[in-house]
Amino acid sequence: MHPRLTRSTTTAPRLSLRPPRAVSRVEEPRLLDGDHREGEHYERLMLDGEDLAGITLQECILEGVSLNDAELRGARFIECSFEDLYAPVFRASRSSWRETSLKSTRWGSAELYDSRLDGVHLDGGKLDYVNLRSSQLSDVLISGCIIGELDLTGGKATRVSLQDCTVGTLTLDGARLKDVDLRTSSFRSINGLDGLRGATIDEYQLQLLAPFLAESMGLRIEG
Predict the structure, then answer these.
(1) Is 34:57 a contact under the CB 8 Å cutoff?
(2) Running DSSP on this structure, what letter comes out for residue 51?
(3) Phi, psi for 184 (deg, rounded to 5)
(4) Rounded Cα–Cα distance for residues 101 and 110 (Å)
């Protein structure tokens, strides 16, 4: 007999998102690396290949913006709202995201390693590879996404929830998790099973993981 699972005590992400207010539409912005832009609305822009390293966007709205191969290393996004962002290659390593929402995102390879995400909602969209290696995530909700690979190697995640997501490979080598809720999402494979410590799964997911857990422990199962 196995112990019955008790009522969940997993702490959900604490989000207090609100859409930016009093924004001004900017038709042809000249965005430069290191800029600090506040209260602006960009729509249907092509920023492919632009050098925007270290830029700060605060209380800004981006809709239908293409950022393919744009350099966003060290960028800061504060209380922003993004929708329909497009980038086969999204370069935003060492970036910072705070109280920001992203809806219907389409990223191929997303380079977000060494980044920090606080109070972020990623809602819907298709992402092939999300590289969050050595990143810190707190109060993050990822919902309704299709993700080829989610790589949290060496990362730290606190109060993170994946809701109704389909993930090909979840990589957790050396990850440190606390209150990470994986229920309602599906995974084809999980690398670094030791990194699952601190995650919450449901009974069905446990059944699917049983052979991999047994293998990792060196158990031999014979009928």
Answers:
(1) no
(2) B
(3) 75, -5
(4) 16
